[in-house]
């Protein structure tokens, strides 16, 4: 499968002949609006920087609720979490989406997760191969909490998202605050090919670019 990053929490996941776009943002965020025609769009919550599906062209299915969803053999599980660390009282709820591709790769998109995951969340998620995790803090978990989440999930590949770049005006941290907590990491372009046979079981941090 292939993963393409458009900035913030927006990725295109391509596998099994299906294109899934996550958390599309509006123009105020600073990145270019993705020029893609997905089959499915998932939205972790209804904030402007995560729910702008109206700016995406084509016909697609929008998934924005917890529970089990199916699309052409791909299972998409939405797990209810919170956008903050006070049970949603500050910023409301958040949905973690787990994508189960037929080729045997499982991807988790944590949306705007605002707290360390509990055991019940980890059990619902199951084994994760690729973890898309917010690391910028302020509106989500920060670097230290993100590292704890990584250690609890133990994915093969960790891709940080929702952090400060030259395009972002939000008051959030840059990715270096997260990567500095690991012995090493790999930089790639805006697209990454993931093959089941290349997953080693050891966690690798991969920083994508736009």
First CA to last CA: what distance?
A: 19 Å
**What is the CATH T-level topology?**
Metallo-beta-lactamase, Chain A
Largest sheet: 8 strands, mixed
Global mean pLDDT? 96
One letter per element, helices H and strands E, the order comes to: EEEEEEEEEHEHEHEEE
Structure description:
The structure is a single chain. By secondary structure, this protein is mainly beta. It has a single domain (2-207), classed as Metallo-beta-lactamase, Chain A (4-Layer Sandwich). Helices cover 10% and strands 32% of the residues. The chain has three helices and 14 strands. It has helices spanning 119-125, 143-153, 176-179; strands at 2-7, 10-15, 18-22, 40-42, 61-63, 67-71, 74-82, 93-100, 106-109, 130-134, 157-161, 186-187, 191-193, 204-207. It has an eight-stranded mixed β-sheet, with helices on one face. It has a six-stranded mixed β-sheet with strand order 5-4-3-2-1-13, with no helix packed on it. A hairpin with a 5-residue loop joins strand 8 and strand 9. It is globular and about 40 Å long. It starts with a strand and ends with a strand. The model has no long low-confidence stretch (mean pLDDT 96).
Task: Give the SSE map.
Blueprint: E1 2-7, E2 10-15, E3 18-22, E4 40-42, E5 61-63, E6 67-71, E7 74-82, E8 93-100, E9 106-109, H1 119-125, E10 130-134, H2 143-153, E11 157-161, H3 176-179, E12 186-187, E13 191-193, E14 204-207
Parallel strand pairs: 3-4, 4-5, 9-10, 10-11, 11-14, 12-14
Antiparallel strand pairs: 1-2, 1-13, 2-3, 6-7, 7-8, 8-9
